[in-house]
Recover the amino acids of this structure.
């Protein structure tokens, strides 16, 4: 089919994420990708500022990752993980344990970030069930969080400001504290955790775990907060005998400037979720890591069987590519790359703070965010085309224009992205 026929078919039959079939959003067909560039069917090349939803940290068509996939597919592309194992999964587990805090000793693989969160919730509830504390089944989290679109994950997303309010009546009822507002440890005030402290004090007897996105709240609002908040939460979880789950699906593998965001608070979670950049954006794969305390604690009732088993759990092809992606990351000067991106984003985005339509500009690691006063929902009929016409791919949502580029992006291409953000703001101001 020609390009126009492809797009006609797509518009008629293919349902894209967060879109309506009645009013489909503008879609652009990608025919290839290389480095930081996407090539469209009409021949244009555009700079990807989104890392394909924050996953392609090494860029596209990376020779090491390509070769890993080719080598593995000649051996086996998939084999069930129930009752069987394989070298790619073992090697990947070894690499993950080496990268994460020492208390994390068990790795459970799954298909996606949402499922990694589901597994983490199951682990926490089952741990307390095995301890004979069957009433500990609720979770405590903070507002403006996002943990995925499956039912367990939806239940710990912000019920008011999130995307899932229509499901409120069928989701489990969990507890939500105000989102932290302190950005830097130097500005810490105890009142920022006061309501969280009150909730965990009053409800710890029924709480299985606290679940948080450390330091950066992603799809719930691209909000940043200080490491001290995490330290306070860890201390409260220890004090009140509640487990701590950290969702590093978006922040893991260097995005905030450290391998994992929790490192900036010098704490360790009881359960850790990773995904997205795990395979460098090549394939879907996620993992839930936990401490021996959790894994062995689940077995004190004589069972310890975690009742979860995705069909494509520990897919060998995905695991092999993930091993290669981690090797590429560790062999690169990724810390310096992220630092350079952070400095350039700060220099080039902060001037937009003075514009009347801009509410806030914030940068952390390889994340740059421009928050507007008004939502962009009414602009989506023209905005996607306008963005591509600037030679870039940026996907705004709500009142946010943000970029999370691949770590390999050069200065010139990053400047093209930040200039494009300025042009978007300028165009919006004319409406």
């Amino acid at each position: 089919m020609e390009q126009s026929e492809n797009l006609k078919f797509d518009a008629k039959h293919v349902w894209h994420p967060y879109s309506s079939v009645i009013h489909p959003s503008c879609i652009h067909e990608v025919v290839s990708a290389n480095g930081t560039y996407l090539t469209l069917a009409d021949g244009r090349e555009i700079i990807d500022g989104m890392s394909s939803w924050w996953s392609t940290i090494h860029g596209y068509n990376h020779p090491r990752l390509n070769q890993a996939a080719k080598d593995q597919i000649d051996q086996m592309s998939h084999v069930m993980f129930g009752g069987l194992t394989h070298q790619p999964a073992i090697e990947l587990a070894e690499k993950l344990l080496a990268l994460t805090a020492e208390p994390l000793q068990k790795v459970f693989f799954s298909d996606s970030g949402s499922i990694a969160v589901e597994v983490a919730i199951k682990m926490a509830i089952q741990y307390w069930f095995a301890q004979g504390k069957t009433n500990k089944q609720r979770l405590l989290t903070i507002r403006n969080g996002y943990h995925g679109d499956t039912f367990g994950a939806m239940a710990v997303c912000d019920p008011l400001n999130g995307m899932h309010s229509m499901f409120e009546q069928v989701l489990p009822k969990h507890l939500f504290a105000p989102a932290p507002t302190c950005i830097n440890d130097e500005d810490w005030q105890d009142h920022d955790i006061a309501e969280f402290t009150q909730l965990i004090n009053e409800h710890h007897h029924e709480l299985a775990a606290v679940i948080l996105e450390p330091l950066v709240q992603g799809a719930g609002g691209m909000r940043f907060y200080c490491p001290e908040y995490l330290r306070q939460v860890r201390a409260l979880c220890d004090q009140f005998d509640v487990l701590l789950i950290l969702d590093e699906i978006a922040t893991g593998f260097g995005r905030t400037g450290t391998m994992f965001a929790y490192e900036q608070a010098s704490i360790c979670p009881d359960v850790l979720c990773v995904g997205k950049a795990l395979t460098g954006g090549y394939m879907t794969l996620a993992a839930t890591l936990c401490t021996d305390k959790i894994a062995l604690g689940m077995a004190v009732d004589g069972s310890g069987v975690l009742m979860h088993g995705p069909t494509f759990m520990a897919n060998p092809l995905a695991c092999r590519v993930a091993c290669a992606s981690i090797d590429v990351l560790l062999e690169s000067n990724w810390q310096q790359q992220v630092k350079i991106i952070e400095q350039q984003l700060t220099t080039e985005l902060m001037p937009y703070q003075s514009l009347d339509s801009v509410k806030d500009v914030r940068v952390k690691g390889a994340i740059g965010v421009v928050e507007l006063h008004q939502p962009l929902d009414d602009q989506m009929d023209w905005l996607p085309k306008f963005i591509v016409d600037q030679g870039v791919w940026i996907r705004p949502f709500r009142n946010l224009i943000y970029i999370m580029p691949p770590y390999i992006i050069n200065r010139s291409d990053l400047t093209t992205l930040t200039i494009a953000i300025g042009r978007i703001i300028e165009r919006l101001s004319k409406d």
